[in-house]
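Co-fold these.
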Amino acid sequence: MKQYLLAVHYVEGAPAMSDEETQHMFRETERINQEMVKTGTWVFGGGLLPPESSTVVRTGQGGTTMTDGPFAETREHLAGFWVIRCADLDEALAWAEQCSRACGPIEVRPFDELSQG
Amino acid sequence: MDLAEIYRAEYGRCVATLARFLGDINLAEEAVQDAFATAVQKWQAPPPNPGAWIVTTARNRAIDRLRRESTREARHAEALLLHHQDEPEEVGPVRDDQLRLIFTCCHPALAPDARTALTLRLLGGLETPEIARAYLIPEATVAQRIVRAKKKIRDAGIPYRVPAAHELPDRLPPVLTVLYLMFNEGYAATAGPLIRTDLCAEAIRLARELAALMPDEPEVLGLLALLLLTEARRPARLGPDGEPVLLAAQDRTRWNRALIAEGHDLVRRCLRRNRPGPYQIQAAINAVHTDGDATDWPQVLALYDQLYALTPTPIVALNRAVAVAEVHGPAVALAVLEDVDLPGYHRLPAARAELLARLGRNAEAAEAYDQAIALATNETERAYLRGRRAQT
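Predicted complex below.
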């Protein structure tokens, strides 16, 4: 079995979702979560608060510094993710297809060999 | 058959079978190359079943190699190998393995350029420099594409299996696209000599294998028919100076009758199945072109209408306009082209130029030819367009 990250994205400045869309997203996400748990696919997952709530911690010779805001200097930020366990990429892609219908584009990324639980 | 022919015919099949044994494409390639190197030394004449000989030798070589090496991965692979040895002895390359490898090489998670390079490398047995020459791109670029694709197959866990029936609608089109583009690159080269035979031959060889492996998929048969019927006209397609000859002006006696018969037979098989798709319709169009003494244009137009309904792309609209011109005249076709948008593609202004010239609108035709000449990347085609411009 391999582990994959299914990453959901948030694009700064993208039009806000309607209430109906938001409800659909939550409903679908909940359904997918339950199915993942039922099939033994689920490892972990959740939604994240906006990047404004982030803090970056850096350690160096001068000591530790903390800066307000996200690390990546882009308009696209991680908005949430699943970590799943499945047999191969095709299975992960099939899950991602379901997740994408709920949460928009999904990036599927394999964990390295050391992390394959 | 000499060794080079056997290599071409058997390389991909053997790699496919070894990849299943070893669970690793790189190890499979090494083992098959080792086995062919042994064949060069040992064969006085090729054995009756060269593929089986290569598979057995490659497998034994791989086991030897894995026993010498002691990495965790190697031990893991050896365990797999020993597991497979419990199964009934294979007598040579296994057909399903080839299908597995085709679907792995053409997996939608790989970059499109990488799919073609990997297919030519693993299934066609072409070396990196050969692929680079065929595509007129630097060897380093090809090598990098192949290395990256193999790494992604391993790291991302792209499976080595034939997709289930319900997955085929998503998974078969990329495979057909790879073979179609491979043929096209050879036939309508983007640069260099106008026809590069090796790519065409390899695309047809792989399409034949795919048709043998998936005889119930009408689009696979359709693709093979399309390639054969296009290939059949190759001998008449270029004039003595390498200039393209239009269909109507081609010497039909130079067409390859055997390929046409085979292509027509495949088109009839598709028609009987009555599950039309884009490749089957394009094959049917080419069947009409190669039937009798002259093209039945109303039938071609009817097929283009059907194709456009299925795949309403600007390229199909452009090709359909050529049929419209033959049936309804150049003025109607010109109006059809008004709505076609294909930025940067020389064939659109070239088609407009032809139609304008036929309408006697010579100044506009010359202008359109100039646009086409500026956009064309192939020197032979540019020379042809300059010649047409001079005649208007």
